[in-house]
Design brief:
The structure holds two protein chains of two kinds.
Chain A: H1 4-9, H2 12-40, E1 49-54, E2 58-60, H3 61-73, E3 77-85, H4 97-116, E4 124-128, H5 131-141, E5 146-150, H6 161-170, E6 174-178, E7 187-189, E8 200-201
Parallel strand pairs in A: 1-3, 1-5, 3-4, 5-6
Antiparallel strand pairs in A: 2-7, 7-8
Chain B: H1 9-13, E1 21-26, H2 33-46, E2 51-55, H3 62-68, E3 72-73, E4 77-81, E5 84-88, H4 91-97, E6 101-104, H5 120-129, E7 133-139, H6 144-154, H7 165-169, E8 172-176, H8 180-188, H9 195-203, H10 208-237, H11 244-250, E9 258-262, H12 269-283, E10 286-293, H13 301-317, E11 320-325, H14 329-340, E12 344-348, H15 363-370, E13 376-380, H16 387-392
Parallel strand pairs in B: 1-7, 1-8, 2-3, 2-6, 6-7, 9-10, 9-12, 10-11, 12-13
Antiparallel strand pairs in B: 4-5
Helix pairs in contact in B: 2-3, 6-10, 14-15
Amino acid sequence: MIPSVILSAIRVEHILIVAALAIGLLGGFLLARSRLGPKAKAEPDAIHHILLPFTGTEISRRAVDAAMRLARAEQATLMPAYLAQVPKSLPLECAIPNEAAQAMAMLEAIEQRASAKGVPVDSRIERGRTYRHALERLLASETFDRVVVSATSTGAAGLSGDDLVWLLEKAPAEVMILRPAAEDHAVLTAKSNGRPPVVAAA
Amino acid sequence: MEAVPAGREAARDGPKPRGNYKIFLGMAAGVGKTYRMLQEGHAEAGAGRDVVIGYLEPHDREETTAQARGLEILPRRRVAIREVEVEEMDLPALLARAPELALIDELAHSNPSGLEYGKRYEDIAAVLAAGIDVFSTVNVQHLESLNDQVAELTGVRVRETVPDSILGTADEVVLIDLTPEALIARLRAGKIYPAQNIDAALNNFFKIENLAALREVSLRQVAEDVESKRLVYTESEQLGTRDEEGLSRDAPKAVGERLLALVRPQPSSQRLVRRAWRSAQRLGTELDLLWVKPPSLQIEGEVERQVTALRQLASVLGAHLLIEEHDDVAAAAARVVRERGSTYIMVGEAPPPRGLARLREPLPQRLMRLSPPGVDVRIVAHRGVQEGEEAKR
């Protein structure tokens, strides 16, 4: 039982002060939790990456789908990489707006398709004197677990047969070269005429 | 080596004010820069001024040669390079002749070694310093900052370049504009190159798409030059501005629009960069990428990997990646906006706030509040395609 003397001494102001203290403490706790939360989480295992190198304005839809299926199954991140050739007359590290516009549209198209399937994407654009050189630079700067390349009748993402042999020898990862198939006419392409990219089957 | 204007009254009466400098800028050979320079030279001579052609490169074009008639041409001097003799502008003779106006063609030309200066634009600087007015000509691909861009557009790299600041030193820059179709028609008519070279020119440099791109670059360059000068005048005249302190400090840099995209070292930022870059391309402006790094965060592991990827992407796009260490993203961004004269800020769509974060002012609103007036803030929405939509494709 609370003595009546004490009860009579409690005023509205006191209740408000107690309430404010309680809110302050609760707020402080929530703030600390929201700040410390991410650090408290366990570090995820190393992120797996599946590299999908390509060139030009189209890529075999089969290759994209295969890479996405793998990424989904392995909870990996898809890494589409546009390989750009820089003429010898230009510095290797120069800006390449025209190539970049092409690359952007393609990467956007792949990203949209991957996003629909719930596959995380981490895109790259790599420059080189040749496509193989660009791929070589990519291999040197990035880590990934698999490489998916399509050996279509129109060329393996701009890579020649020799390049594929080179890739098999040099890539520090499992290389998956897709056999040419009848459905290779289905490609993922993107229009980059100032509008958002369009995913289309050609 | 400083050239001395022998015979000039300036030598006796003290230094003369710098001469007036007019540059005729073109997108390619054959648009009529030299012709127009000569036309204006005639007009000046007709008005009673003492006009001399310091150097003319008519490229065997009849129209140009005909236009030069009636104007005094300073004889060229012969310079031996190894065992070959070449003809160059005679700078000492021009300074000694001291006309009121000198017409000097091809300001990007490189002089052979042994002459007073290595570059013709340096010769011109000496002429201007002697108080002589100068008309000169240059093609846009010779400008240093555009050299890479033009080489990528056209596949042809020009060796002789001039600093962009040369245009800034000119009192007037006149763009000699011609449609690509009209220029090609002039080429086909043999008005630019001899008949035997026409096919090669048409198959290489003189393609419609090349010329259209060069024309756009030239028009933009002159527009920027005009804008830059307008801002400098505005500053000197102390007219009202939206942010007097900011503009007076940044006026020469604040040319047209400038985009700033706030990024984070994570893959989702790439989409924001792509959108920002497309907007920058459409506006024909520069793009800055800003990551405001929390002071406690170390750049290592996945963060380092993503920063490297952002840096690489910025380099490919010709954008600038800035990393600022600060606790407050909006305050740091607002400072960068002021420093770089940004007119647009692009931010990615943030996830819905949770907990106490709901009480905080959203980033776009803070940016609007802290940035100089008139800076637009744009939120780039996440635009993923849903599974159902994808299935319909």
